[in-house]
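Thread: "does anyone have the structure for this chain?"

Original post by V.I.:
We have the sequence but no experimental structure in hand. Need at least a predicted one for the grant figures.
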Amino acid sequence: MQELRSSPRIRIDENIELIDINMEQSLGKLINISAGGFMLLASSDIPTNQLFQLRLSLPEEDSVEFGAECLWAQETSDEGHFWVGFQIIDISEQASARIESLIAAV
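Reply from O.Q.:
Generated one for you, tokens below.
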């Protein structure tokens, strides 16, 4: 399979949740992340082609907020859980720098 990402994703082993700011609820656990996107493990199906305003709750740090689009969702072998891929589409320079430092720390 040809890699289409412009930057490689880094696997996240910590328990970091992504919160839908508008609904004030968790979308799932962060699995991997790059400067341009991320994958999470969700306990419910997330509609593709939908925009989200998200908060990434970082350990021992302030939260990072950004906009992202759900590009794909696929049910895992564990029924009721989904792998979900997002593209980051709206992010401040400060939030982008925090994500870059998270990636560099891994």
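V.I.: this helps a lot. The chain has one helix and seven strands.
O.Q.: and The longest strand covers residues 64-75.
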